[in-house]
Amino acid sequence: MNLVAIVLAAGRGERAGSGDPKQFRKLGEKPVLARVLEVLCAHPAVSECTAIISDDHRTLFDALVAPEVPASVRTVIGGTERQESVKNGLEAYRGSDATHVLIHDGARPFLSSLLIDRVVDAMKFHDGAVPVLPASDALWRGSGGLLDKTVPRAGILCAQTPQGFSFPAILDAHENHPGSALDDAAIAVWAGMRVAAVRGCPCNEKITTREDFEKAESVESTHPDFRAGQGFDVHRFGTGSSVVLCGIEIPHSHGLVGHSDSDVAMHAIADAIYGAMGERDIGYWFPPNDARWENAPSKDFLRHACELAAEYGYSLSSVDCTIICERPRIGPHVDEMKSSLSASLGIEPRRIGVKATTAERLGAIGREEGIAAMAVAMLKSK
Ligand code: CTP
Ligand code: MG
Question: Ligand 1: distance of its center to the CA of 70 in Å?
Answer without folding.
Answer: 23
